[in-house]
Amino acid sequence: MYRTHTCGELTLNEAGKAVTLAGWVQRVRNLGGMTFVDLRDRYGITQLLIDEKASSELKAETAALGREFVVQVVGRVVERAAKNPKLPTGEIEISVNKIKVLNAAELPPFTIEDETDGGDELRMKFRYLDLRRNPLRKAMELRHKMAYEVRTYMNNEKFLEIETPYLIKSTPEGARDFIVPSRINAGQFYALPQSPQTFKQILMVGGYDRYFQIVRCFRDEDLRADRQPEFTQIDCEMAFVEREDVLQTFEGLAKHLFDAVLGVKFEGDFPRITYAEAMKYYGCDKPDIRFDMRIGELTEAAKGKGFGLFDSAEYIGAISAPNCSEYTRKQLDELSEWVKRPQIGAKALVYIKVGDELKSSVDKFYSVAELQNFVEITGAKKGDLLLILAGAKKQTLSALSALRLEMGARLNLRTEGVFKPLWVVDFPLFEYDEPTQRFYAMHHPFTSPNPDQIDLFYSSRKEDLEQVCANAYDFVINGVEIGGGSIRIHDSKQQRRMFEILGFTPEAAEEQFGFIINAFRYGAPPHGGIAFGFDRWCATFGGSESIRDYIAFPKNNAGRDVMIDSPAPVGEEQLRELSIKINKEEKID
Amino acid sequence: MYRTHTCGELTLNEAGKAVTLAGWVQRVRNLGGMTFVDLRDRYGITQLLIDEKASSELKAETAALGREFVVQVVGRVVERAAKNPKLPTGEIEISVNKIKVLNAAELPPFTIEDETDGGDELRMKFRYLDLRRNPLRKAMELRHKMAYEVRTYMNNEKFLEIETPYLIKSTPEGARDFIVPSRINAGQFYALPQSPQTFKQILMVGGYDRYFQIVRCFRDEDLRADRQPEFTQIDCEMAFVEREDVLQTFEGLAKHLFDAVLGVKFEGDFPRITYAEAMKYYGCDKPDIRFDMRIGELTEAAKGKGFGLFDSAEYIGAISAPNCSEYTRKQLDELSEWVKRPQIGAKALVYIKVGDELKSSVDKFYSVAELQNFVEITGAKKGDLLLILAGAKKQTLSALSALRLEMGARLNLRTEGVFKPLWVVDFPLFEYDEPTQRFYAMHHPFTSPNPDQIDLFYSSRKEDLEQVCANAYDFVINGVEIGGGSIRIHDSKQQRRMFEILGFTPEAAEEQFGFIINAFRYGAPPHGGIAFGFDRWCATFGGSESIRDYIAFPKNNAGRDVMIDSPAPVGEEQLRELSIKINKEEKID
């Protein structure tokens, strides 16, 4: 037996007890006669004391200890002279009789502290050392707890966790697949799943009623800051349900997780807003509603008064930043530069200071009454600063959304530890693509239209089809899209109509979706589901914007695992067995 | 709302209630005036009654129903005239007012019954229909329950479930990897993990102490009947442990699963036997100990008496089949043919009938006293039949093992529903390969030697090294290897010695295992672990020898998923993006 206790559990209750501990040397403080060692394991830190009366052998052994050495110590629990109220073990220390080095350690390339001196790449390369730091340990513990509580809730709700295959088939639609050459079937390939979408629908056809899975998904995309080629989803599907059943069930899941993991309780239902409202009031489909600062539209009120920027704009909108009416010229200039950055892309920032009187950068174009009207439309209060953007509608709303989030952050309105979940519903079913003159499915071609818009769905007018909403929903927390799903089409007539709208001939539909269309012929129940981004949900609960710290072994932005140095070349013989070779021609991009 | 109740929950308690049910039409029985319909969902079957007084419309709708139609019915719960005590819902039926067909169904290609008329390939192709049958539904439910209870136990024992990556790096040792071409890193490949072995050891270096994961693993092997290219493991690792800690922890897991899933309780510890004992008494390293019938060795007692088969044999062994002394000539001939089959490969079967007197096929070579000695060595009792095989030791023990299992099966000693778990310990650390004149690791090169054989481990004599046992263990239930693991080497001197014995130069070891050897330099704790074959454990608990029914979407023996028709060719453009092409040369096998 290597230890009688962990480094996180001894208190005054065990005073006087002989104990054996094992762990890593966090730090050694030699105070002349006596030496203190902080011994660390996953559970905490316990202070070791090697005092003046210790044998010279023990003293020499202590002197030889280095940071991150793995040691086993035998000693007695004693009350500390100087207690540390911040540590659960802070009232005691171990008066050591014996130290055994289980393994020496080279000096780590960065400090194993909450705030480390190691850069990103170095910490990725030595991930096993980074994982020893408290923030990462806590992230892994949070993730474990999240997964465990997801399963507790889902099991209680009679969901079955069913594993779907990872070696499946490539489909030409959607994002790029990772593919896997088959050795036994030369010239053929498996694909890694982008999601178990088809399989979960197949399970509904198979009568499984309530399915879920915490499952890895793979997408060969060009990586952005917060994307990973492999990521984890909580994938769920239910049969014999309408939208309300799905929302109730998963609002229950979210409430369970908030309570069990964070101790946060919610009264009443989560708010629901439509996609149209979200775009109108927040300029985006995943609003952070921890703060209000809604967008007010000024297009009608502000056009035609001779101010060129506004007169030529498709859309004019504003937000009202609370208590900012005293912003200086310098502050306003800086904000003006901020909205003009290419990532935001606004042409100019127009403001109105709502003080005892209204002061504006466009005083000469608008009367006080007109400006007062702007203030009323946006609901600004005295002391607020009205920030107005104008231009093409889509871009301007997007810029207003970014400006709103930025002002929310500057004004500390996006409070850490406050969680505001909401459902966004009634997404458009289709997106019309002008260049190709065709409709695309916003979600996927099995998403059903809203049940009260079936007439529009069968209309042949483009304008009607553009109005059709999907029976789909997104789950958002604090401006982060955590999950999304839909009620699926189970009626073959609707499915045929859907393919027709999307421009598939019956043959092309059969070619691409034949297998699931076939399955649906044998008695498909009405069904719908949702999938949550598990990495992102963990990060959001952990108060982080980046998912990387919530994945034990993430890849970098080039899709590389720098710890194991992967991907890597493989041997010629291995490729020959798989009947493939490297194509050394230049790639045409 | 599609239903007020499931098809498995209504009893006399709900008599008189108006209910709405939804499900699949299992069967329709038209008894002239009235029609009975069995409505099925995941939870059970409820009988529907459309009686004589029903509207002609309802009668016509009922007449139009086909097998596996998806319907919604509204009606009232009434007491049945003829109750069915076998069904939980057998006391009631639904007097139907309204039937709505939610989806029609084509006639399924095989019957959705416990005993179906569909062949293997057909059922694989229409897996979604096969999954509707009770045996598969129960298998999926068992698997869900197993996974859930594994997590319950592990969570209580403070194990963290940590997800390790699926896109890792190919290693030349061991079984073949599946590889995944990287698009962004042209000419380079990821590999799918054969197990998270390296990552779980890395997590121990990272201080995670108690790790587990229910995780998919991939092996590109030539498939045998009960192998799958992707399979699921319960993967576990612990730090600061010795063998006893690991065995106690996972014996606890097994007992928890036996109790929670099967309601089977065990008193006391599971038996442990050494590899040497297992080979000696059962002829194999995963004995089925539901029955005794141990092998007795007769080599010394039977050699040198002029019987050529025995005199020339390296080894002679016997089992004693209880109550078989009355076997007829025909039965004995048939058994003799059975052991001579190529799969078993024995040269001949010698028997002794232990009746009032001893009757043997080798009477003329052995005196009654000598035969009596054989009987005593094997512990045969009156009424038993002694079955003797002779030849090369390894092959003969293997044949005796097969014969023992066969006799156990014929005599109904391998009782279904009886579970006899055991630990097999002290496996050899090395295997000497004569052709290449070198030692191979039986397990893997990080497996530590038994702590009391360290001297032998450092010996330079081949005979000494052959005696060294691994600090490894297998978990066996009813003759099926469910799991295995070992205490790992954490001492760099031992690791160097291990590589030396295995014939790696320091450079070659660095080349192949550099990344983990490096990690070990920064403070590796003593650690060890185990991995369980989850598919196999589920099948064993379900009383099945095949894992295929315990996997929702298995592949066939050619590694194909015949339901989705995968693997499949992919487009030229997709290959070009990945910088690979198909190698059309003949494969050299």
How is this fold's topology laid out?
The structure is a homodimer of 589-residue chains.
Chain A: E1 18-31, E2 34-41, E3 44-50, H1 56-63, E4 70-79, E5 92-103, H2 120-125, H3 127-130, H4 134-156, E6 160-161, E7 179-181, E8 189-191, H5 197-205, E9 210-218, E10 230-239, H6 243-262, E11 272-274, H7 275-282, E12 296-297, H8 299-302, H9 308-311, E13 315-321, H10 329-340, E14 350-354, E15 358-360, H11 368-378, E16 385-391, H12 393-410, E17 421-425, E18 430-433, E19 438-441, H13 454-457, H14 462-467, E20 472-477, E21 480-487, H15 492-501, H16 506-520, E22 527-533, H17 534-541, H18 572-577, E23 580-582
Parallel strand pairs in A: 3-5, 6-9, 11-17
Antiparallel strand pairs in A: 1-2, 1-4, 2-3, 4-5, 7-8, 9-10, 10-22, 12-13, 13-16, 14-15, 14-16, 17-20, 18-19, 20-21, 21-22
Helix pairs in contact in A: 4-6, 4-17, 15-16
Characterize the biggest β-sheet of chain A.
8 strands, mixed
The structural domain count of chain A equals: 4
Radius of gyration of chain A: 30 Å
* Structural class by SSE content of chain A: alpha+beta
CATH architecture of the largest domain in chain A, by name, is 2-Layer Sandwich
Mean pLDDT of chain A: 94
Poorly predicted tracts of residues of chain A: none
Major sheet: arrangement of strands of chain A: 6-9-10-22-21-20-17-11
End-to-end C-alpha gap of chain A? 60 Å
Number of strands of chain A: 23
Quaternary status: homodimer
Please report the number of helical segments of chain A.
Answer: 18
Shape of chain A: globular
Which protein chains make the most extensive interface, counting residues with beta carbons within 8 Å of the other chain's beta carbons?
A: A-B, 127 and 127 residues
CATH topology of the largest domain in chain A: BirA Bifunctional Protein, domain 2
CATH homologous superfamily annotation of the largest domain in chain A: Bira Bifunctional Protein, Domain 2
Strand content of chain A: 15-25%
CATH class of the largest domain in chain A: Alpha Beta
